[in-house]
Amino acid sequence: MPVARILQASNGNPLALELLTTEWLAHGSSSLLSDLEALNTQPAANIGIPRAIGAVFERQIRRLDAPTRAALDLAAVLGRRLADLSLYDVVDLSAAAAGEALSRLRDEGLLREVHGGLEFRNELIRAQAYYAVAGPARQHLHCKVGEVLEARAEQLGRSGNLEVAWHFLRGGVPDRAETSAIKGAEAAISAGALIEAEQILEILLREPGSDHATQPLLLLLARALVGQSRAEAASSVLTRLCDEGGLSKPAHALTARMRATVEYLMNREPGSAYCEAADRALEAARETGDLELIGNALFECARSGVNAGNEARVATVRSQTEHAISQVGTDIPPILWYTKAYCDFFFFELASAATELERAISTLNARRDPVGLSLAYTGYGTCKSGLCELDAACEAYDNALRFSTRIGDDLKSAIIASNLCVAKLHQGDFASAVKFGRHPQRAKLDNQHGIPLGVRVLRTRDW
Fold this sequence. Notes:
It contains 26 helices and two strands. It has 463 residues and is an all-alpha fold. A two-stranded antiparallel sheet has the order 1-2. Helix 11 runs parallel beside helix 13 (214-227), helix 12 (194-206) runs antiparallel to helix 13 and helix 21 (370-386) packs parallel to helix 23 (410-427).
């Protein structure tokens, strides 16, 4: 049962807690809770709120005057931005009038003050207010809010673009959502908010009339899916992307690298397919001259060599990576340090691998790159574990697990939990070892790949 989600939606209200819990037990993932959470993305056409609760709400809103009712309608559309008084100009309310109306809604028990701000008393009340607005009127409000927020794009930052895109989508004008969605998805992926990016990209790609933006949308969606280690879903997107044709050299190189990653995730048996995909990725990356792309492709080549047990291939990649690092001088891309460390680890040069990962982590922290940090901290923990520096190993794994959980990569979280289990076992902390051994994501490794976890880790030296 999703206890945290139920608590958040109910805001601790006993009746809401009981209703949402009962609904979840009866209907599971298709329950009322999912409909409430969808209010900020793709609201359902209607929602099954019990008649008795709806009747109480209807009696409350009948007492509201016109300006207060207009404020309630817009507040339901705004959600977390309901306290932004300047937005109420959309319903012809000045900031002063909007403040007065919101105070009335608070006094009526529909809103509550939290840390100096305002929010709905719980998501059930917001849902009732939202669906009490006629569909065409809701669409109009979403469009108007989207226009206002779009005009403030510089103030909101790139992450605010997702919010703008969702308003235009809910307003029934998907063509106006595309530019904001692309900017917002790029920012979300960079920040590790991969699920948020995936949601809006999938919705937009299903909308008619998005053909002219298909390529950038598919490329971003593939990045979001690969970042979550969702190989099968990413594979179909990448196939569609290649079928579209017309990719630029950087886009082609990125696509080739992601196809190599997908090959690794989907085929755990040693063989030539992954090596060939990695070689194609490196060839495409070299045509761009982009060191980030080259570094990522070199890593795929190294990992494919490890996967196939081909020492000569790994040695060649290590030499090529050393050469690339020597040519850069300063501002070395962290993926080059990571690839060099990966090769050194394969040849049991653990101390040098740990030092190289420290350099990668320093740059990744400066970039605030949660995906890269999840990988680098995992590798660093494995090196420290091999050096018998178990406290440092556990600290690194804890950091890695925090980042992998944040980005929603269940596969990586399962690997890290397994590594933590072993490290805690070596420390003699058996209670913690059992806890990580029972980590909910850990079983997904066996389910997804059909290979026992211990065999898989030994075979691939997976970080």
